[in-house]
Every structure is written in structure tokens, then in C-alpha cells.
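Kindly inspect this today.
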Amino acid sequence: MKRNFSLFLKAISLFFLFLFLGLFSLFIIFAKDLPRPEKFTERAWILPTKIYDRTGETLLYEIYGEEKRKLVSLDVVPEYLKQAIVLKEDADFYSHWGIDLKGILRAFLVNLRLQRFVQGGSTISQQLIRSSSLTREKTLKRKTREIILSIELDRRYSKEQILEWYLNQVPFGSNAYGVESASQAFFEKPVSEISLAEAAILASLIQAPSYLSPYGEHREELLKEKDGIIEKMLRQGLISGKETKIAKEEEIEFAEPKVSILDRAPHFTLHVKGLLEEKYGEEFLRRKGLSVFTTLDWELQKAAQEAVERWIKRNEAFYAFNVSLVAIDPKTGQVLAMIGSKDWGGEPFPENCSPGKDCLFDPMVNVAFRERQPGSAFKPFVYTTAFEKGFSDNKIIIDEETNFGIWGGKPYVPQNYDGKFRGPVTLRQALAQSINVPSVKVLVYLAGIEDSIETAKELGITTLKALSFYGPSLVLGGGEVKLLDMVSAFGVFATKGFKVSPSFILEIKDDTGDVVFEEKKTPKRVLESEVANLINNILSDNEARTPMFGSNSSLYFKDRKVSAKTGTTQNYEDLWTIGYSFGSRPIAAGVWVGNNNRVPMAKQPGVVLAGPIWHDFMEKVLSFWE
């Protein structure tokens, strides 16, 4: 027994000895690759990533290696900026020895639960090492090397030196590297002069510089992140209650972005750039020479821009200062054209407005991704639900003043757009003419609110909440939606019931020409073809809609089968026209007209202000594709 126990102890000892020697050998092998200190503030680029249209003939944008960087010493960086960044990126920075075991364990458990890599638990030291090695591959070898080099970095250098290197190299987006360049880029002032609120903005940007860019579509999320960091600093006792109040109430004034090179499909291109950065990382894109072939059709993009430019001045006379347009191939889900706002290079209007808050027009906002009320453009989803339940388009429903009970604390008695009641009408007439009262009855008595919500979600609407958020006004646009989602969902009717989610990238090739990514999506049937055909027939029935829209409205195309639906919100904050062709080569397109700050326009319906833009674009596309 003693002999066996002695052998067991020897075996255990040998195991740990070999384990120690193995780990020590790994440490020696990897530690010799620790970058020189000056490496952390030097950059070299190899090949830029190029973003093309679908043909590869039109270059939309280059992601290149030019970086704006100005080095500063740690003592000129405000204490609250250092605190905010450490608190956000690595709360235990001053106590750990290069790696955070708790953070690694927490990230491991999250990734295990979600069965995919979403968290990394990286310290500031690890981020510094990773940025110098220029790799984001998620392999055990890379992670092992990163951990060993991070430990060695902390062993050799002080925390202050490591933090100074980090603050001078970390990317903040817009080609700004380091806190000084970021401060100059976003606030046009030295980092030594930024406020607590501005410091919290910079700290917020580090984890997602492209997604949270103040010049992109998620500025509101950036401001929420800023407030969250300030709250954390208060809880940690780093700032006072008074400082917290001032910082949260401060109006952040961002400098004008230097984006003159983005003159081709800028909102579309920036969205693609964000998708690429999420997948590969900014540094990789600047150096690895990828060729990205997008879904954009450059000829259709130009047609979209021409349609917008033709009508926007006229619309401004009706106090409508912005436009967004999206076009999709419904068979593939590929986004063919996108106008996020009417004029990327324009100035915010009025000149003294605060972007994101009180601008009638903000050129940087991609309205195609903003949630707005759709008005009557939502009605086809409700009628689809009723038809799925077996009701006929010839079913009679009475158009008369109706009290639908108490909703929101008061009786809900909707009115029709023209203030008239027509008595008995068919479901076909009610949808084609967009008559409100019968449509509410279809929602409440035939389709059902919950089932209508589920139909809209099945077809591609991603923003609707739980049933408790909505009442009978849902059919008149009571739930907010995105233009991109609406165009995609209408495309399901064009494909006779098949759904393909929107896509922006066709293919990515590396610097040797090998394909490293190819978009492959399989259409999914979400609607019976008989119901889709019925919707197509009603929305293209010019005779049925004539009593409301006239016989020659912007929804009508002579000798072409095109379906369309308009939307006008009750207070004229949002106007829509969405439609599609449904032949052998379908296309779905939608136009939104309104003001960024939701100030009401003049009392004109969607067919008047959004309709002509949509018609011009569709007419050009159909002439291309004949």
C-alpha cells in the first residue's frame, strides 16, 4: 500500500513538473516576441480594404491605413478620462497582473451559455498586446500567446506606462487613434480641456467605435452609454452628485466630421463598413487588402438619388425636409439602393440645431434604420392576417362612425382621412382606398391584434413589441417600424410568400483573390401564395383605389403590374409610399418623407409627398429591367 502511494505521489509530482516546464517553455517562447515599447505607438499599413458595388466596377470606399495620431503624456490627460476608461475597459487594471481571471471566467461562462464567442474578458494589457500583433483570430494559440505576453508586459512595465501606451493607441473611430486625436476629431479641443461628459463619450466609443459613432445611426445609444459610465463613476465615489448632474445634462457639441471622400452611397457604405468592422475589426481592414463586393446596384443608386433631388425642394415648401429611400431584390434580400438622408454632404437644418435632438434635417442619420410610425402602410399585414383566416376580399364591412371602447384612458373613435363614411364596403375597397374605420374593424373583429403582430413579424418587421403595447390604432400605424424592414416585408408579397432577410454584402475576397465570404441565403415560405396573390391584386387594383386616389395617381403604372400602399400618420410626422413589381424580376422599394425631429409637416398625405419620389424611381428601374 505504501509503495503504491509513493508511486502515486511520484507520478503526480512528475505531472506537475512537466506541466510547469511546459508552461515555462511556452512563456519563454512567446515572451521573446513581446513588442518593443515604441511598437505601441508606431503603425504601418499594408493594403487597404476596398468596398465596391455589386459589379466590382464602382469603388464606393477605401478603408486605408492612414491614422490621425498625436502622442500625449499621461500627466496631461484629465484624471476623470483615465478613470472613465479604466472603469469601462478594465475595472481591476491596477490590481491584476496582466490578465483578469474573473473576467476570463465570466466571459467563458457567457460564451458557453450562448454557445458562441461574444465576450473576451480582455484587460487593457491584453488589448494593447492584441493591437500590436494585428490578429483577431479566435484560436487557442493566439489567446495563449496574448495571455503570456500580457503577463510579461505587466511584469516589465509600470501600470502608468501601460496606460499611457494604451491611451495613445486605442482606436476611437473616424481614423482617430489615441485620446488626443479623438478629442480633436470629435470636440476640436485638446484632450486636456475636455469635460467630464466628453470624457465619458470617449470611454463609450472604445468597445464599438463604428457602431456608436456620433456621426452614425446609433448616436442615442452613445449618449446612453455616456450616462451609464457617469453613473458608474458616481457609484465608485470618483465624482460627486453635483458633477454627475452637470455631466448628464451637458449638451454635447460634436465637431463636423471630415467625410468628403464618402460621396458614393454614403449611408449604405457606412453600414457595410460597420458590418465589416464587427466581423474583422478596424485594424485588420486597414491592412489586409480585402475586396468587398456589396449588393448595391450603382445605376439604381443614381436613379434613387435623382428621384430624391427632383422632388425635395418642392417638399420643403410643405415643411418636409428629409427623405429616405430603400430598394431591395425580394427574391434574394439584396439591398440594391439606399438613400439614408437626402444629402450626405449638406448642413444640418436649421443651422443652430442640435443634431439628434432638434434638427429638421440631419445628414448623418440613416433614416432607413430609424423607427418611425408607418401610418396606413401597416394595413396590408392586418388584411393578410384576415385573409389567412379565410375571409374573402368580397366580404362586406360597414364604414360608419364606431366607438371601439376605452383605449389609453379615453374612447377610441377613429375617423377616415376625408372625414366621410361610405356605409357597406368590401375588404378589397377598404384596403385599396385605405379607409380607416373598416380597417380597424378588420383588425379587432377579423384578424386580431396579436395575430396581426405575429404576421408582421413573420414577414420581417423586427421592431414590434408585446401585445400590451398596442390597441386598435395598430392598423393605422400605432407601432413604430424601420423603412428597411417595411420594404423587405412588402417584398414577401412580391415573391408570393417567400421571405429572405436583407443583405448588404455579396462576397469578400482576400488579397490573393480567394473568396473568404459568400452570402448564401435560402428563401423561407412565410405566407401562402394564394394570400400573397390576393394582396398583390388588391394593391395593384387601380379601379378599386380610384375613388380615394384618383385614376392617375403616383401609384399607377400603365401596362405594368405594380402594387403600392401609402401611409400618413395622424399628426403628419411621417409619410410613406411602399410598393413593388411582382413579375419575373421583382423589385420592392419604399420612400419615407418627414423631419428628423418629428416636427409635423403640412397636411399632405403620403401619396402627395412620398409618392412622386417612389414613382420616379420605380419607373426608372422598370425601364432598366424591361
